[in-house]
Write a structure and sequence with these properties.
66% of the residues lie in helices and 5% in strands. It contains six helices and three strands; from the N terminus they run H-H-E-E-H-H-H-H-E.
């Protein structure tokens, strides 16, 4: 009987100790269990890819020189793969190295010990979408100023600037609404992406004229 009472006493104390331990650990575990909207994660992934896809498929538009052919001409350039790979490589570098290991900026609801999934700077989605916008903006202005004598083509404006602007804005807003990044992280990612896109787009558009020479081909190799 004494032994059974002793065992009952020990079991009750062990139960109390386990409850105390669980109560102590509960706040720290709740601090890392933050709800994030998976729907917005999917939407922003699609919009970021769409912004890049528009720039990849959008033709270069310029007012052809009079000694060649008159009027606006649209030409697809295979060379656009070069800036696309450059900006895509930067986005991949950010996703797999910079964001989780270098720029340790915790997402909303996480602290500095939250791990790689809690790090949100730079946001790859926002960085990629705005780099596409920057690239398109640079290409549009270089083509308008250098190859069209300052004349604006509204189709080029919509394709290179307008549509990527919509996609990138939805991406940035969605990352915040879905609780995937904070406001500061979104603005930092958008500004960095826009700057990189402008730089790469300006270099590409300056080195690669929008026309295909005298061939009149729709696709320039």
């Amino acid at each position: 009987m004494v032994r059974s009472m002793h065992r009952g006493f020990l079991s009750r104390w062990c139960g109390l100790l386990m409850c105390a331990a669980l109560w102590t650990l509960a706040p720290s575990s709740r601090a890392q269990s933050v709800e994030r909207d998976a729907t917005w994660d999917t939407i922003t992934f699609v919009t970021a890819l769409s912004a890049a896809g528009v720039e990849l498929l959008m033709p270069r538009v310029a007012d052809a020189l009079p000694e060649r052919t008159l009027g606006w001409k649209a030409r697809h350039h295979v060379s656009v793969l070069v800036p696309a790979l450059a900006l895509g490589g930067i986005a991949a570098l950010n996703e797999f190295w910079l964001r989780p290991d270098v720029f340790e900026s915790p997402r909303p609801g996480c602290d500095e010990n939250g791990g790689g999934d809690c790090m949100g700077l730079f946001s790859t989605h926002t960085l990629g979408a705005f780099s596409a916008l920057g690239h398109g903006t640079a290409v549009f202005f270089v083509d308008a100023m250098n190859s069209s004598n300052g004349k604006l083509n509204y189709g080029s404006l919509i394709g290179h600037v307008g549509i990527p602007l919509v996609f990138s804005t939805v991406t940035a807003v969605g990352r915040g609404v879905g609780n995937w990044e904070g406001t500061g992280q979104i603005f930092a990612s958008a500004g960095t992406g826009l700057g990189l896109g402008l730089l790469v787009g300006f270099a590409y558009a300056t080195l690669q004229p929008p026309e295909c020479g005298y061939t009149g081909a729709l696709v320039c190799w």
